[in-house]
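Lecture 7, part 2: worked example. A protein chain together with S-adenosylmethionine.
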Amino acid sequence: MHVDLSSLRLEKDTLINLLTSKDQESFNYLYTKVDGLRKEFVGDQVHLRGLIELTNHCRCRCAYCGIASDNTAVTRYRMTKEEVMASAKRAMESGCKTVVLQGGEDPGIKKEWLADMIKQLKKEFGCAVTLSLGERSKDELVAWKKAGADRFLIRFETSDPVLFRRLHPHHSETQLEDRITLLKSLRKMGFEIGSGVMIGLPGQTYESIADDILLFQKLDLDMVGVGPYIPHPETPMGRSYKEQPPIFVQDSVETAYRVIALIRLVCPDLNIPSTTSIETSEEGGYLKGLQRGANVIMPNFTPLQYRKLYEIYPDKTCVNQGEVSKKSLTKWLASIGRTISDSKGFRNKCSNDHRESCRKRAKC
Ligand code: SAM
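Predicted complex, written out as structure tokens:
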């Protein structure tokens, strides 16, 4: 297996060969090279983004997601401002410089309410604020940007339009193109933009995962998050998981690591989280992800009574865990030679010259 690490351009065929390679030893060698690239481009500091799962109300009926509106077994909640502020305080005390307000696509989250919340978070903690609340109106997004929000995350989930439609089978819901258009307009509004995909979806091919990686590169994203798809028994896709369509990706965790490594290779200066769905699928996965190209962790600060209700997939890591302290995070990261970042972790976009010198230092 030969890969020219000095080039940012990997052809689709090369990506497919790498994703499907049975030569694990060579791939492990590639992981060490990618880890060197990560060090040169974004350093040893790990950005901590404190995740607050604001609401599990959702108007969408995504076929994969445990909090989709069809799942009537879910007890719904929406956090109060006081609860969000208390969670954010704990996140700051644990070393986070960003809070991520994530939730279902919830019309109960009102424009003014969230704008005030964002202002209060900025005023009290001076932190970065990331939103991940699904597809919202332009009017709302402009108001939240104006209030001080810094980033917006919305995964396109897959670049295969046919699979995307299967994931979102209801007419009132979005098309793949709408997500891409939304990402582009968020960028124009001044947000840092993040997206991502799930790995191992029924019917998802390696070819489409190669296309996902090329689309990440084309969109010039600031952050990309990927993780294994984990079937939820109370969803249409989870119920028919073993039946059809075929599961092409046999090892979704290893494939997720490979995708992380390949993203670092083709987009070396962006932020990549080692995601909760990786850790849920494989204990120790957070650290492995960090050693295969990732540089961000999103510890959970949702109050415990709500955490178990935000069950997008079963057995989510951290549901019954207490909150992590700065001391334990520092020790945990030190075990792989990394430290907690003292910055808000905006993407430091590289010039071509800087790219060249980083690649030379990483000996690629
Ligand atoms: N509503 C917002 C949105 O859709 O962008 C944010 C919340 S949504 C639950 C966050 C992400 O969870 C989705 O983009 C999806 O990739 C991931 N997710 C949902 N169900 C999942 C599952 N069964 N396995 C793995 N990831 C899942």
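Residues 24-42 form the longest helix (19 residues). Residues 64-65, 102, 104-105, 132-134, 154-155, 157, 198, 227, 229-230, 232, 277, 312-313 surround S-adenosylmethionine (CB under 6 Å). Keep this in mind for problem set question 3.
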